[in-house]
Design a protein that fits this description.
Length: 475
């Protein structure tokens, strides 16, 4: 079941009605049953994997919390993390490691072949594995108490709005909300519906329309000119943003209907003035997770400048690998790591350079935003390309002399481009006024309803109606 489907538009109101129609003590069970049903609609067998990924950290955290022996606590932590990471590696990365080992062996003249596992990648495994890891580590470090209620902990792992593509929630923030008694709040319901509507607009009107052109270019590399690759790369930048942020908006809106608050996952990332700022705005729940559970634990910036570079590169390479079992993702993460290292190393020189230009503040920021956006788009080539060879072909085309305009069907891109203009206007309004919804709320009632009905008509008339899967479902 996916958010942009009729099934979900029927499923969600039924869950909300049942949730508010039952006593508070039964609501966790309703949400848990709904979450497992939601997951089993994709593949019922993998609900067993979700249950294992729940029970192991639950029991491990209880043992860690009750034990006073440091060695036993550490052994339990390793066993719990090893089990969940082992499942993630087996289902997501084993084929990648086996193929890479075979390739390396062939180059070294060593003949061996690792066994392969012909298994389907479980949807959401990267997201709920990271949630259980953060929970176990937080209990071990005594940041939080171990959850004693198995049902509510299972709900934390499987909560359906953010189960398959985040945001990656911390137990300290989400678990206590399952104990709070929620009352029906019409204002909160309206807010949730508005977020769902805006998320659907970004997904089906912008992302899915742009995907038609992006796929036609990136799926047939070698048959296009430079301008086609440039347009496809820029289109993909907005496609992936609207696809993923659209999912996050729907997830946050769906949870809001139930009185649950999820963390914001995006904050106008393409208005970032440098790469460090970009990662504070893009996929915030992942970037903060990598910071807190990878970068800081391995030393971060506490061991000097040389180790800071190493820690940044390790963190970003792991972040790239998290996105997919392919060298294209690893290189994408590595490029961001190098750019972050370069950004840190040249920060003082760049600040001095901008100060000496004596440019107006708005012009300086505009130039920095444009430069950052193009660096991000350059990295997106590796993220979207199917193979390294395709990525190098696309990058090589940027240096060719042929700049013939591609033949583009205007009907394919028109709604996507109009949607991008609407998106840009909304985000500029957010930057200026702080909250677009508050600005809309101050409008006269007929104008407010015209805005929301306009989004509905755009979704119905301009949106792609095939119910395409969200990009981050494959991660």
């Amino acid at each position: 079941m996916i958010f942009n489907s009729i099934n979900y538009l029927v499923f969600l109101p039924l869950v909300v009605l049942l949730y508010y129609g039952l006593p508070h003590r039964m609501r966790w069970a309703v949400l848990l049953a709904a979450s497992y049903f939601f997951y089993m609609c994709w593949n019922a067998q993998y609900a067993i994997l979700l249950a294992v990924s729940t029970v192991v950290p639950y029991l491990g955290a209880l043992v860690i919390a009750r034990s006073t022996n440091t060695r036993n606590r550490r052994a339990t932590l390793v066993a719990s993390l090893g089990t969940n990471l082992g499942l993630l590696v087996a289902f997501k990365y084993w084929e990648f490691f086996a193929e890479s080992a075979d390739w390396l062996g062939a180059r070294l003249g060593v003949s061996f072949s690792l066994p392969t596992l012909d298994v389907l990648l479980p949807v959401g495994i990267s997201f709920y594995t990271f949630q259980t890891i953060s929970y176990t580590v937080d209990v071990y470090c005594r940041r939080i108490d171990a959850e004693k209620h198995l049902g509510r902990f299972a709900l934390y792992v499987s909560f359906f709005p953010q189960l398959v593509a985040g945001p990656i929630e911390r137990a300290s923030r989400l678990l206590p909300q399952f104990y709070c008694q929620q009352h029906f709040d019409f204002t909160r319901i309206c807010l949730g519906c508005q977020l769902i509507l805006w998320g659907l607009f970004k997904k089906v009107v912008i992302a899915d329309r742009l995907a038609i052109y992006v796929d036609s270019v990136y799926n047939s590399v070698g048959y296009h000119e430079c301008v086609a690759y440039l347009l496809a790369t820029y289109a993909f930048a907005f496609q992936i943003y609207c696809d993923f942020s659209g999912y996050s908006d729907i997830a946050i809106g769906s949870a809001a209907l139930l009185g649950i608050r999820l963390v914001a996952n995006f904050r106008q990332p393409y208005f970032a003035t440098n790469l460090r700022d970009f990662w504070r705005r893009w996929h915030i729940s992942l970037s903060t997770w990598l910071r807190d559970y990878v970068y800081i634990p391995i030393g971060g910036s506490r061991r000097g400048k040389a180790w800071t570079v190493v820690a940044l590169m390790i963190t970003m390479l792991l972040g790239g690998l998290w996105h997919g079992a392919s060298w294209t993702y690893v290189i994408w993460g590595g490029l961001h790591g190098l750019l972050l290292v370069g950004s840190r190393a040249t920060l003082d020189a760049r600040n001095l350079f901008w100060d000496r230009l004596h440019l107006p503040h708005w012009l300086r920021d505009t130039v920095r935003i444009a430069l950052t956006f193009h660096l991000v788009c350059l990295c997106w080539v590796f993220f979207r390309a199917k193979t390294l060879a395709d990525a190098m072909t696309i990058l090589g085309s940027f240096f060719q002399r042929s700049w013939a305009l591609p033949g583009v069907n205007p009907n394919v891109l028109v709604s996507g481009l109009l949607g991008v203009l609407v998106l840009a206007a909304v985000q500029i309004l957010q930057l200026q006024r702080g909250s677009c919804r508050r600005c809309v709320a101050r409008l006269p009632l007929p104008v407010r309803w015209s805005v929301w009905y306009g989004l509905i008509f755009a979704i119905v008339l301009l949106g792609v109606q095939q119910g395409s899967q969200f990009i981050y479902f494959q991660f």
